[in-house]
Amino acid sequence: MAKRDYYEVLGASRGASAEELKKAYRQKAKELHPDRNADNPQAEAQFKEVNEAYDVLKDPEKKAAYDRYGHAAFEGGMGGGGGQRGGFSGNGDFASAFSDVFEDLFGDFMGGGRGAGARSRAQRGSDLRYNLRVTLEEAFKGVQKTINVPASVACDGCHGTGAEGGAEPVTCPTCSGMGKVRAQQGFFTVERTCPTCNGTGQMVKNPCKICGGAGRVEKDRALSVNIPAGVETGTRIRLAGEGEAGLRGGPTGDLYIFIEVRDHPIFQRDGLHLFFRVPVPMTTAAMGGEVEVPTIDGGRSRVKVPPGSQTGKQMRLRGKGMPALRGGGVGDLLIELVVETPVNLTARQKELLREFEKLSEENNPEANSFFSKVKSFWDGMKN
């Protein structure tokens, strides 16, 4: 029976790129995998055919020969057509093909693939998180803080290699440095992490007595951190290379500092703006006057209270709020008046207020308007 065209087998055009061929191969391999087609006796043969086609077309030299001469380019066992190298004449060949497709399909996701052991010899250190609380005044000005971070650091005894005296690790004899071993189980080749080196691909003959071969030890470090002006709760600061040391000389992780700004007894914050409520005497609210208010920079400002001010009236001091992080403007300070009613009145004060009440019947427009509406409501209910 004549062999089918390899491009037809993969469902790809002759002008397909390497990436398009790989995509077509993956789709066909998943579709025809024997494990997914237990009720299809032809699935295994079709699966082999797909692997044979891709084995040729993924290789630039084989692909060029096939594009020019077709299947005749591999007659005599030179490639993927009829010889032991490219064909699938027995269970061993099928198992090898399955191992290759499994590696191609899932190696990128599982961290596998050829050479994975070499990549895992030195492992990057973990990133660390540190929660730092600052005052609102510190967030306004910016501040330099010294923090103590418990973390793993490179072992001084072995300089991070894990071996006594700083000697270099040796290649694992079990996996030959790959970090993985393969075992044949019927049709399948099962790949497992090497039990001797635990996937690192290397071994330490004489482990360092200080770190036990890990290449790092636990130690507290004092770090100086610059907190820029304008930070707010949730701001994240990254210190590259200040995390945990890597295993066996691997790169160091990063330290992430998360800022929390404490509540302030006077000011409330809303983004760049600050807000607080200031009580004013009833007389000041009625006749007008001035109140002295604080600002976040430690200064003082005098604010004019217009005559007839009511509770809830807001005034704005521009540019007296919080600075934007890394520049970009400054917010405002919003002041809300709270008209305060006097308490614990003396007899004389009560007498004066009663006299004032008789003289101020026309000085309460909001109250007059409200009670006029109430009277109309009651009259309407009677009718």
Automatic annotation (TrEMBL):
Residues 142-220 form the CR-type domain. Binds 2 Zn(2+) ions per monomer. Coiled coil: none annotated. Zn(2+) 2 binds at C172, C175, C194, C197. It is found in: Cytoplasm. It comes from the Bacteria. Zn(2+) 1 binds at C155, C158, C208, C211. Residues 5-70 form the J domain. InterPro entries: DnaJ, DnaJ_C, DnaJ_domain, DnaJ_domain_CS, HSP40/DnaJ_pept-bd, HSP_DnaJ_Cys-rich_dom, HSP_DnaJ_Cys-rich_dom_sf, J_dom_sf. Its cofactor is Zn(2+). GO terms for molecular function: oxidoreductase activity. CXXCXGXG motif repeats lie at residues 155-162, 172-179, 194-201, 208-215. SMART domains: DnaJ. Signal peptide: none annotated. A zinc finger (CR-type) spans 142-220. Residues 303-322 are annotated as: Disordered. Homodimer. Belongs to the DnaJ family. The J domain is necessary and sufficient to stimulate DnaK ATPase activity. Zinc center 1 plays an important role in the autonomous, DnaK-independent chaperone activity of DnaJ. Zinc center 2 is essential for interaction with DnaK and for DnaJ activity. Participates actively in the response to hyperosmotic and heat shock by preventing the aggregation of stress-denatured proteins and by disaggregating proteins, also in an autonomous, DnaK-independent fashion. Unfolded proteins bind initially to DnaJ; upon interaction with the DnaJ-bound protein, DnaK hydrolyzes its bound ATP, resulting in the formation of a stable complex. GrpE releases ADP from DnaK; ATP binding to DnaK triggers the release of the substrate protein, thus completing the reaction cycle. This is Chaperone protein DnaJ. It comes from Gemmobacter denitrificans. The lineage of its organism: Bacteria, Pseudomonadati, Pseudomonadota, Alphaproteobacteria, Rhodobacterales.
